[in-house]
Amino acid sequence: MSDDPPPPPKLQVQIDDDTALGVYANLVLLNHTENEFVLDFAFIQPSNGRAKVRSRIISSPRHTKRLLLALQKNLERFEERYGRIELGPDEEPMLH
């Protein structure tokens, strides 16, 4: 008999039809407090310079860090397969 813990159950994710369609965002606004991060995903129309928030995600610092690491890993995999993603000089993140 093994003393190894049993494997965790497989995660089952449910998604309704409207959420599965997704929304397009070309801007993310980030804010944080000691206890949470707020990510506002917005669509900005280049012609008028106004942005409309399409979705707001509120996350714990620990989960936000896991998200960052998962995004980094997936970008690395993407670039290995499809080539480097180049950012233009006006596309650098704004840090305040």
Can you characterise this structure?
The protein has 96 residues and is α+β, with helices and mostly antiparallel strands. The protein has a domain at 23-84. It contains 2 helices and 3 strands. The chain has a 3-stranded antiparallel β-sheet with strand order 1-2-3. The protein starts with 16 loop residues before the first helix and ends in a 14-residue tail after the last helix. The mean pLDDT is 91.
Estimate the global geometry from the Cα principal axes.
Answer: extended
Mean pLDDT: 91
| Strand order across the largest sheet | 1-2-3
Structural class: alpha+beta
Radius of gyration, taken over Cα atoms and rounded to an integer in Å: 18 Å
Which regions are unreliable across 5 or more consecutive residues at pLDDT < 50?
A: none
Secondary structure tally: strands: 3
Helix content: 25-40%
Strand content: 15-25%
**Major β-sheet annotation:** 3 strands, antiparallel
Q: Which sequence of SSEs, written as H and E, runs from N to C? A: HEEEH
Give the helix tally: 2
How far do the termini sit from each other? 56 Å
